[in-house]
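Before we proceed, please read the two lines closing this message. Report back on whether the C-alpha cells fit the sequence:
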Amino acid sequence: MDTDKQKIAYDQALWERVKKGDNVAISRLYHRYFQLLYSYAFRICNNKEASKDCVHDLFVHLWEEREKLSEVSNVKSYLLTAVRNRTLKIRKQNAKFITKEEEHSISVEKIFSIEHIMIHREEEEENRQQMMTALEELTTRQKELIYLQFYEGLSIREIQERTSLQYQSVKNLTYRALTKLRQALKKDKNFKKN
C-alpha cells in the first residue's frame, strides 16, 4: 500500500505534468480526487449540482491556467482549499447572509470525521479491487499497453517505440482495452445493485 509520502510525491509528479500540458495527468488528478472534492463541496453547500460544478470548474480552471500554476507542496490540500473557496463563493452568492465566523469555521477537520475518512478509504479499496478484477479480463498485450499509458504515463508514440507495434495498432488495442475495462466495471456495478 502507498505511504502518504508516496501519494504526495505521485500527486506532485502529476501536478508538474499538468503544468507542462499533459492531459492524461489532469485526467488522473480529476479521477483521483473527484469523489473527495465533491463530498467536501457538498458538505459546505448541500447541493449536488453546485458541488459537481465546483469540482468541474476547478479542473477546467487548472487546465486553462496550467502554465501559470505555482509549485505546491501538497496537491490534495491545495485542491481541497480551492474547492472550499469556490463553494463558499457560490454559497455567498446564493445566501443572503454568511458571517466571517461561519466561513472560517468550515474547515477540513470539522467536515471530515474519522468515520467519513474510513468510508472513503473503503470505497477506494473497493474501486481498486473492481479495477484489478476488470484488468484480469484483458489480454497480456492489452494489460501491457494500459500499464505503459496510464501507469508510466507514456504517449502513444513512446509506447510504439517501446513495443515495436504500429502507431495505429497501439491506438486500436488501447481503445479496445479501455472499452473492455468500462464494460467490466459497468457489469460489476450493475451486478452489485441487483
In short: The chain has a mean pLDDT of 79. The radius of gyration is 19 Å.
